[in-house]
Amino acid sequence: MTALQKFLSDIAPIETSQDAAKLAAKSRDYFWYSPVLSELLRDKVGDVIVVPRTQDEVLRVAAACAKHRINITVRGGGTGNYGQCVPMAGGIILDITQLNSVLNISPGSVTCEAGILIADLEQAVRSSPIEGGQEILMFPSTRDIATIGGFIAGGYAGAGSVRNGILKDAGNVTMIRVVTLEETPQVIELHGSDIQKVHHAYGTNGIITALTLHLKPAVNWVHHIGLFDSYSAALRFGCEATEAIGTEVDAFLITAVERRIAPYYTSSFGDRFPDNKDAVFSMVNPAHLTAWRALLTKHGGTESMALDELEVKAQGMHPAFECAYNHTTLMALRADKSWTNLQTVAPWVSGVGIDIALVEKQMQRWGDEVLQHHEFGRQYGGCVAFGLPLVSYLDKERLYEIMAEFEADGCLVFDNHVITIEDGGMKTIDTAQIDFKKIADPHGLMNPGKTRGWLPEYARP
Ligand code: FAD
User: Fold this and answer.
1) CATH architecture assignment, domain 222-413
2) Any atom of ligand 1 within 6 Å of the Cβ of 162
3) CA–centroid distance, residue 80 to ligand 1 (Å)
4) Distance in Å, CA 180 to ligand 1 centroid
5) Per-residue pLDDT tens over the stretch 34-71
6) What does residue 9 show for φ and ψ, rounded to 5 degrees?
7) Do residues 93 and 87 make contact, with C-beta atoms less than 8 angstroms apart?
């Protein structure tokens, strides 16, 4: 009997599949945004999909993986962009989406299982009578197809971050429960700053089964489009609005998209985003709409849409958050596969914003090769603008030249064309995460190849 056959025998009757088409589909994520990653990852495939329905079943799977030394890659919605849940060395694909219950809602907090779709979680806290309805603090633009566990394990920020900060900011995620990969698995709960040991670790150090998130009172956000005569004016508005959140205005999302990207939005928005205007998509608190409109007018903007989510959807349009973050790239890629994107951070001067003259210079320098898109946010108590520019892909060498030019301009680049945590956003090895991996995954079986911090000699014999 092979190790895999022994594993399957140990975990029966938990649902499994070795159907080739399903395996191929569940071994992919959205790495195809990157031609570099497409080349590297297109042939990687797992050996069996396992679908636990309870934490007890997760414990059985973890024990059998450890006993037979079989690799395991946890998979939520499979919407990561960097091959985060692609099994680099075969093994088990643990589909966690059936662990999808809300466990407890209380004032200011929700505890849920990790495999729940973020949209379902949001619906549950909004419709619960507690506090008259609450909302989660942030979600990726993939709200409707991503799991909350996948967001915590692989995500960074999203709609809501301009108001509430990033996932890493203290108090946003208050508890993470993980199952360890040992012959006798443990269930460990991390609280407070300890959650950072597992957050954004790409599922390399424990299977997240449940978590607790901070909530705020629900707002029926107005999905809003402001149009401007120049991208610089759109950015100036975005900077001032971001600085004013919490005092003069209130918004959940502020996204600037330049006019050359407009043609990719027309199927949803028509002349609400024409190709002779630059746009700011936002989600505005209806109680602050008058102040929002005044700020828009001050910056020479005009309103082309102000509807709540139900109204937006009833008219066949995308909600504002699906015009933001990596959905902007998706809109372009659907029409033209020659695009890819980068992730940058422009330096922010407090009270002023980003250097708009620099963005103008970059637009001139790169012409039609790079199209601009900025997400406004907050992190670590300050304001930030994440750049998610579209790049017309020529080859890997040119892509890295453009990254180097961004860096030479003083922008940070979070390389989204690599598969390890460290080569992407984190830059350095997070030793606390590696120390926790020694406890939670002592044999080094979880999502192998995704962290440079784990060395083969760390593995327990
Ligand atoms: P998956 O892709 O399934 O997994 C992501 C990582 O987490 C993998 O390494 C996986 O192994 C691990 N993982 C998943 N579940 C668990 C678990 N229970 N325990 C341990 N590890 C686990 N990201 C953002 O941060 N903000 C955005 O706004 C955003 N927008 C996006 C838009 C588009 C169109 C696309 C394609 C991607 C976007 N992303 C964004 C990336 C991604 O959608 C999010 O990070 C999303 O939350 C991932 O959730 P998922 O369930 O799809 O995770």
Assistant:
1) 3-Layer(aba) Sandwich (3.40)
2) no
3) 4
4) 20
5) 999 999 999 999 999 999 999 999 999 999 999 999 99
6) -65, -40
7) yes
